[in-house]
């Protein structure tokens, strides 16, 4: 029997990070997640998460706006609705609410979890079926200190947890950033793939200089060197260098991927559930990327375990993630609000295979970290 959506609760959850995490636009010491709990009229519950980086530093939605907008505008559209078609529920929301992609992604995640539990199948099955059971996962070095980053990377390589690394740069002068990256690459050698994320901090001429030096230093990939919507610059840079470019902030959804490909961009695309409005739309972006000959990467907005789990379910349905993924968000946090943490080993993470997301809330931990 089809169930109906009976209740939607949202809460802000703050968990400190294991060390400061420095990006070009902010430094994080704590991560705030908006946790969503949707209950149906048969007593089942679906979990969702909407998470961004650094309040309003990264994008136009803050944790507080995500919570307020779900409570005030999105949740009332779902209460009382039958659960049989998630796409018709998405359509219902999209007809009344523009933007707010992270809020939409949080709700879509909870609906998928609820539907998966109802049908007794994992979320990956609802998204077409898992092709992979283990997803490669890199680690981000972002302490801001070269020696600390080298020590952190060497320990992670030795433990077998990660062999690929992304370095956050862009807040310092390009020469200092390149020296920092080159020192890390030289210390790790060929045992590691080293990539950088500039988070839009360079203009095109600085990017031309920086990318030439990074290519020389043996860096494998440069992520979003120039401002998000400067699609022409990204396309020109991708044609100028052999070192590939990964588009991140510049491509939120399938239509952005089309626009970038149309301009001659020949790099790769970072898929993220948060910027697309949910895993279903992130997979639409993947389809347009593949049709345009662009390679894929599973991205994160540093979500905790719920947002990370649903992303892993989505990426498991893709034939090929050319650059692996960065689904390490839970490992950056000092603690977790779920009972069985995601399993990280062999330079990757396992795809959960229990019904729904395959994860269970730890109520005591949730009560501890929930914002009062
Ligand atoms: C980004 O822009 O890629 C992903 C990993 C990380 O450390 O920051 C994010 C955001
Ligand atoms: Mg990025």
TrEMBL record:
<dbReference type="Pfam" id="PF13378">
    <property type="entry name" value="MR_MLE_C"/>
</dbReference>
<dbReference type="InterPro" id="IPR013370">
    <property type="entry name" value="Chloromuconate_cycloisomerase"/>
</dbReference>
<keyword id="KW-0464">Manganese</keyword>
<keyword id="KW-0479">Metal-binding</keyword>
<dbReference type="GO" id="GO:0018849">
    <property type="term" value="F:muconate cycloisomerase activity"/>
</dbReference>
<feature type="active site" description="Proton acceptor">
    <location>
        <position position="168"/>
    </location>
</feature>
<keyword id="KW-0413">Isomerase</keyword>
<dbReference type="InterPro" id="IPR018110">
    <property type="entry name" value="Mandel_Rmase/mucon_lact_enz_CS"/>
</dbReference>
<protein>
    <submittedName>
        <fullName>Muconate cycloisomerase</fullName>
    </submittedName>
</protein>
<dbReference type="InterPro" id="IPR013341">
    <property type="entry name" value="Mandelate_racemase_N_dom"/>
</dbReference>
<dbReference type="GO" id="GO:0009063">
    <property type="term" value="P:amino acid catabolic process"/>
</dbReference>
<dbReference type="GO" id="GO:0016854">
    <property type="term" value="F:racemase and epimerase activity"/>
</dbReference>
<comment type="similarity">
    <text>Belongs to the mandelate racemase/muconate lactonizing enzyme family.</text>
</comment>
<feature type="active site" description="Proton donor">
    <location>
        <position position="326"/>
    </location>
</feature>
<feature type="domain" description="Mandelate racemase/muconate lactonizing enzyme C-terminal">
    <location>
        <begin position="147"/>
        <end position="244"/>
    </location>
</feature>
<dbReference type="GO" id="GO:0018850">
    <property type="term" value="F:chloromuconate cycloisomerase activity"/>
</dbReference>
<dbReference type="InterPro" id="IPR013342">
    <property type="entry name" value="Mandelate_racemase_C"/>
</dbReference>
<keyword id="KW-0058">Aromatic hydrocarbons catabolism</keyword>
<comment type="pathway">
    <text>Aromatic compound metabolism.</text>
</comment>
<dbReference type="InterPro" id="IPR029065">
    <property type="entry name" value="Enolase_C-like"/>
</dbReference>
<dbReference type="Pfam" id="PF02746">
    <property type="entry name" value="MR_MLE_N"/>
</dbReference>
<dbReference type="GO" id="GO:0030145">
    <property type="term" value="F:manganese ion binding"/>
</dbReference>
<dbReference type="InterPro" id="IPR029017">
    <property type="entry name" value="Enolase-like_N"/>
</dbReference>
<dbReference type="GO" id="GO:0006518">
    <property type="term" value="P:peptide metabolic process"/>
</dbReference>
<dbReference type="InterPro" id="IPR036849">
    <property type="entry name" value="Enolase-like_C_sf"/>
</dbReference>
